[in-house]
Structure formats: structure tokens, C-alpha cells
Amino acid sequence: MGDDSPGLIDMEQQIKEVEEQIKTARGYHRLLKARLSSLNATSTTDDIRAKITTLELEKEQLSSRLEDIRTGKIKPVTAEEREVADQALQAWAKKADSRKQIFLELWAIARDMMPEGQTKEQLWDELGLETDGEGASLKDE
Fold first, then answer.
1. Concatenated DSSP letters for the chain?
2. What is the rounded end-to-end Cα distance, in angstroms, of the chain?
3. Is the separation of the CB atoms in 34 and 41 below 8 Å?
4. What is the full per-residue pLDDT of the chain (141 aa) written as tens digits?
5. I need a surface site. Which of 12, 19, 66, 133 has the fewest CB within 10 A?
6. Are 120 and 111 in contact (CB under 8 A)?
């Protein structure tokens, strides 16, 4: 049997050429895939324009505020005024903490005395309780 037949040699040559083409195509595929990932990671022109518009508006607002400070329309807070405000804030924070502690104690008593079958939410609504403005509530306790 002749392994060296011209048809077989031609087929082997074609297989080698096709394998080389596949190898080249895979490399090109990897290159295109990397380029596509890079393009997908970048912002579009419309996104960039929107960001520019937002930043320009922010710049105008800051410039306006800065101009008010420079012209004297807004006077800076003195160290003494800041100290008085800080002391007042601390005093009110202590009062708020005390009130919160009192509320927590009363809430614990009310919760312990809840009729069977009544939920915490129902008691909360029945007593007309509201949050402290920071979203804190005792409904989840």
C-alpha cells in the first residue's frame, strides 16, 4: 500500500493549511474580543455629554456661592459663634438621648404588657408612635 499517494499528500497539506488558518483566526478572535471588552468599558459620547452638563451646572452653583462669600453677602462664622452653636448642639443632643432612653424604657414596658395576639406594629399604630426622623423605629424589635 502506498502511503505516499498524491491525493493523501494533498489532503495532509490542506489539513496543515486549514490548521494554520484556524490558529490565525483564533489569535484574531482573541484580539477582537479584548478590543470589544475595552470598548464596552468606556463611556459613550452621550454619557460623557451628560456628565459634562452636570459638572457645568455644579460649577455654576459653586461659583455663585463663592461669589456671595467674596462680595460679603454671606459673612463667615466666627470662632465664638461656632463655639456657641456647638455647645447648643451638644445640649440638645443630650436631651434627645435622654428622651430616647426614656422612650425605650416605656416601650419595653408596653411591649411586655401587650395583649396576646397583638403585634408590635398594631401597638405602635395604636399608640400613635412615629420615627425619630432618621428612619429608626422599634417595629422590628
1. --TT-HHHHHHHHHHHHHHHHHHHHHHHHHHHHHHHHHHHHSPPHHHHHHHHHHHHHHHHHHHHHHHHHHHTSSPPPPHHHHHHHHHHHHHHHHHHHHHHHHHHHHHHHHHHTPPTT--HHHHHHHHT----SSS--STT-
2. 90
3. no
4. 445 688 888 999 999 999 999 999 999 999 999 999 988 888 888 989 999 999 999 999 999 989 988 888 888 889 999 999 999 999 999 999 999 899 889 888 888 888 888 888 888 888 787 776 654 555 445
5. 133
6. yes
Closest to 133 in 3D by CA, of 96, 92, 86, 107 = 96
Q: From CA 74, how far away is CA 66, in angstroms rounded?
A: 9
The pTM score is 0.41
Task: Note the residue count of the chain.
Answer: 141
